[in-house]
Amino acid sequence: MSEGTSVVWDAPGPGQWARDRSHMPAGCTPIVQHIVSRAMPAGMRRMFHDLGAPLDTLDARFVNGQFYTRLRPLIAPDKPSAKLPPTVVLKLASRLHPGMRRRTRTAARTLTSEPWNQVIHDWHHGGKAAIEAENLRLQDAPLAALDDTALLAHVHECIGHCLVNWEHHFWLHGYDLGPIGRYLFEVGRWGPTPTELLSLLEGASPSTSAPARTLVELRRAVEASGPPPATLDELRGRSSEIAAAVDAFLRQRGVVLFSRYDLDGIALGERPDLVLAVIMNAEHYDDAAAVDARTAAVRATVPVEHQARFDLLLGQARAAMDLRDDNGPTTAEWPLGLLRRSLLELGRRLVEREVISRADLVFELQPDEVGPRVFDGSPDDAELRRRHDARQAQKALDAPVVLGMAEAAPPLEALPKPLAELVGMVQTVLQHMGMDGVVTTTGLHGAGIGTVPVRGRARVASTPEQALDVLEPGDVLVVAGTTPAYNLVLSLAGGVVTAEGGPMCHAAVIARELGNPA
Q1: How confident is the model at residue 437 (pLDDT cuts 50, 70, 90)?
Q2: Cα separation of 279 and 261, whole Å?
Q3: Which of 278, 132, 124 is nearest to 206 (CA)?
Q4: In this structure, are residues 506 and 483 in contact, taking their beta carbons and an 8 Å threshold?
Q5: 375 vs 365: CA distance, rounded Å
């Protein structure tokens, strides 16, 4: 984007599109744009169909490198209107339209059978393990030993692996975010606030607490072996048992991207200094007694006749929270880290042959450009540098929160009861994740997470890498927003402040699990 060029913000399709920085960073690489713009709509379309929501999908598009989404309705999705017909007409349409009638039947089955219980069970009894096994198979490929043809094939296999697993990632959101949305939507009718209800989900994620406990055990072993090590190599040299524990940790976490959902983010294994810091500052936060006390207090405010239902919904939401925290690293961040690793090997070869000047320029390639011609300089170094510079400029753009004409959403009372319940769940999730595109304030205003205030040195960072360079344990991290890839960064912070997000955004979720105020 050249200096003086005006930026045009046209909606990428009919209807209203909300900017989403809780998932994708501004200025995404072309291959990741290719992946998410296909995987998100496909996964969400399948999920809405399977659960019976009266929605086609959550569509995804990029405008000037910024990520926008739109809830696409089931009826006349490409003919949105800012004005609704009379409620009586909506009631008739939602009960007579064949597609809506099918969705109503499916929604009724969903609310009765609660399929998320089976999906969560399957995840913990083979589903996650199967994805991890495929991740490890690709991770174990001897990249440096592959010839050029085999390496290109491996890159495309990694792209395909991302497409499959990112679609699964978004499909799973119906079964991790769905029960949480139902819990907030239904219990909220009885008086408790979303902040109160979400605080009861603290400690619900063994996927976060189990690795933390492992790292605490490793830290204690290192501390017992002598003075604090200055480097990861020094730490590994303390004993064969310590070295084996580090190797086991990095085998599962070393290729996982931690700084952003994009190829130009970095993997944990690329930063030995961070691995050392994570180990030596490992803590396990256990606030079970406080959560139990808050749960009892909130439960007491629920009408007696609904307390058993409250217990059921809270239990399902806590089980879903664990799946949510497990979902991202397994299905998205690890596969994308594998793709980054394969592309960097391609970049290394191109630099070695003087085709390009920097290995990271391979991240500017389109998927169909990853082929034999890339070794002949097509596209050439100058073109890739031009794309890189344009993408960096996109990261600094002040993108509108919404694009396109406002769409009138039908009132829940116009829908058959099963559909109204599911739509309410979806709307609740989007609202509390900060993905609804609604500007709720024009001044300084925030929602607090946690029960204990914190004081510390503020560290302002525009990227996770910058945060890692300046952050010291106990500092308060100040950023525009976070993705799940920030989890390791947040584990070093004493608190976090974000400019965007909601009570269910990634920063809020991990802050609760780590016991950090946010």
Answers
A1: very low
A2: 23
A3: 124
A4: yes
A5: 12
pLDDT in tens, 268-319: 899 998 899 889 988 877 778 889 999 999 999 999 999 999 999 999 999 9
pLDDT at site 501: 59
Of 336, 323, 167, whose CA–CA distance to 256 is shortest? 336
Please state, in angstroms and rounded to a whole number, the distance separating the CA atoms of residues 488 and 157. Answer: 28
Task: Please report the beta strands in 349-435, taking only residues with DSSP state E, as ranges in sequence order.
Answer: 402-403
C-alpha 222: how far from chain center: 33
What domains can be seen in the chain, in order of their start residue? 17-203+308-433 (no CATH), 206-280 (no CATH), 445-514 (3.50.30.10)
Extract the tokens encoding 6. Answer: 């005006």
Tell the residue number behind the tokens 């589903």, with chain if given.
127
Cα 75 to Cα 72, 80, 94, 396, 436: the distances in Å are 9, 9, 9, 37, 20
Q: What are the pLDDT digits (tens) for 175-188? A: 998 899 999 999 99
- Please choose, from the candidates 450, 449, 485, the residue with its C-alpha nearest in 3D space to the C-alpha of residue 468: 485
Distance from C-alpha of 419 to C-alpha of 416, rounded to nearest angstrom:
6
- What lies within 8 Å, CB to CB, of 398 at 6+ separation is none
- Report the 10 Å Cβ neighbour count for 3: 5
Model pTM greater than 0.90? no
10 pLDDT more than 90: yes
Q: Which of residues 425 and 416 earns the better pLDDT score?
A: 416
DSSP state of 56: E
Task: Please give the share of the chain, as a percent, with pLDDT higher than 70.
Answer: 88
Paired tokens of 210: 């189990």
Closest C-alpha among 243, 248, 237 to residue 214? 248
Helix, strand, coil distribution of the chain in percent, nearest 5: 60, 5, 35
Place of tokens 């397994």: 330
Distance CA 363, CA 390 (A): 13
Q: What does the alpha-carbon distance between residue 367 and residue 155 come to, in Å, rounded to a whole number? A: 9
463 Cβ neighbours under 8 A, 6+ residues apart: 259, 260
* Residues forming a β-bridge with 58: 71
Q: How far apart are CA 160 and CA 147, in angstroms?
A: 20
Amino acid at 247: D
pLDDT digits (tens, 9 = 90+) for 497-511: 776 656 565 666 666
